[in-house]
Amino acid sequence: MAFAWYKSYPAGIPHEIGAVEHYSMIDYFDHYSLVYNEAIAVDNMGVTMTFADVHRQATYFAAYLQHIGLRKGDHIAIQLPNLLQFPIAYFGAIKAGLVVVPTNPLYTAREMEFQFYDAQVKAVVILSTVAKNLETILPRTGIKHVIVTRMGDRLGVIKGTLVNFVVKYSKKLEPDYAIAGAVRFNDALKIGSRSPYQKPAVHINDLVVLQYTGGTTGTPKGAMLSHRNLLAQAQQMKDWLFPAMKGKGKDVVITALPLYHVYSLMINLLVGYCCGSKNILITNPRDIPKFVQELKKHKFTVISGVNSLYNALLNHPDFASVDFSELRIAGAGAMALQEVVATRWKEVTGNTIIQGYGLSENSGGLCANPVAGPIKNDTVGLPLPSTELGIFDESGQPLPQGETGEICARGPQVMSGYWNHDNDDVFFEGNWFRTGDVGVMDEDGYFRIVDRKKDMIVVSGLKVFPSEVENVIASHPKVLEVGVIGVPDAQCGEAVKVFIVKREPSLTNDEIIAHCRQNLAPYKIPKQIVFVAALPKTAVGKILRRELREVEAV
């Protein structure tokens, strides 16, 4: 079928990806590790690992996981920032036949408990700085095996010892914890190096990742992604991006977005792996001065980010002195790209930011602007190869070009459903997936996001659902009622704003913030707090967030 967007495809981009080239993510990892072997795969804090290094250590980790009794299909959470340990743990878990549950290390104990319990996690790889949180909730999770790593564990003896000392004693980021039976990551690798590894019998349709997302209802859910989903998405993104890349193992990719996020995991790590790219892992991109210093060390060809990250870089006085002579691709996703940021980026770097669109439910990418063709950055681009997007009305009927409706998708990268949930409302006839986003397609096949179907707030590309924030704030004894909305924010795209009816007149802003810090990740904490006498409600008592937004807009 000839879709409208095909006419806008640059020459050489296939309409379909055809059959995937590998039978599983294990084969994918093994194959490209051998192809690029002695090339540098990852660089973190100046310490590098070749593709052969990553493969060897991932195999040790896989052998360790099998040694402790984990079996094909068991679930393992990886709760790490961008460190050398991440690709070792991620690929090692996959080689052991496990299902990976990527988890945000910024999560509070409450958030960790929900995800670990819901995902039926049996093992976890966790950073020592948040191990204390795990200690408090461990008995209620079902986790049997805990592997703890420190920030500097894979940085060598001298640098690693120094980094661990600074984290523990200078910055005081590592509270003492006591978890019976916890094993050090480095010790796990040593045990694995002496243990046999048995390649599991994996089918291409087997589950390989549970990628948690808020979904379209606000309840955190695990998107079930198979080996086929990830392999297809990697091929789609490679076909789309490769025309602008150097290829043949010559690309240097800046990986600042966290690898536990599907966007970074797919674009940077997995696509980078099949292209032989060198991934520069940025552990703390919020430290902009150090981030800029790191950028100055590399002639990078690819960088992925979100609007707020690009904006922060542009506002640093030394950013303009970075060498952009080799930059080929700057990708943006997860949140809307502001025109002023796109314009300034072009002025400073000489490179145009390529905006795309995707969800955890579709392995990260549905469409993107071409890297070698007409760019419309007021849109999220064209559907990727083998991807079909449509605009539908509330009854599931397709709408003609130019009309606004819900964006629905189907393709080999789209999940099979949400873990342990009723999926009747997620898909409809024809296996169309409901994205929950409202959009429109123009005459050239480019899609534009108009609005969100639900009340989701996007803070620096991370999803925040009002109901979760409301539930946390409502649990404060001095709060009577609360309503939460998102408001425009120059730094983060959107920020959380709360309207509170007091139960006790003595309630203060500081008390609310302190309560939120105990129960919410930092990006979910309100930036604005307003105390009101009453909240607008429906006849049955449901708070009308729509009216709160209307009041905010006045």
UniProtKB/TrEMBL annotation:
Origin: domain of life: Bacteria
Major localization class: membrane
SUPFAM superfamilies, alphabetized: Acetyl-CoA synthetase-like (SSF56801)
Obligatory cofactor(s): Mg(2+)
Pathway where this protein functions: Lipid metabolism; fatty acid beta-oxidation
Ranges where the AMP-dependent synthetase/ligase domain occurs: 36-419
Protein's cellular compartments: Membrane
Domain called AMP-binding enzyme C-terminal: residue spans: 468-542
Topology class, membrane: Peripheral membrane protein
Molecular function in Gene Ontology: ATP binding; long-chain fatty acid-CoA ligase activity
Keywords assigned: ATP-binding, Fatty acid metabolism, Ligase, Lipid metabolism, Magnesium, Membrane, Nucleotide-binding
EC annotation from Swiss-Prot or TrEMBL: 6.2.1.3
Annotated GO CC locations: membrane
Top EC class for this record: ligase
Similarity comment: Belongs to the ATP-dependent AMP-binding enzyme family.
PANTHER family, A to Z: LONG-CHAIN-FATTY-ACID--COA LIGASE
Protein name per the record: Long-chain-fatty-acid--CoA ligase
Organism listed in the record: Chryseolinea soli
Lineage: Bacteria, Pseudomonadati, Bacteroidota, Cytophagia, Cytophagales
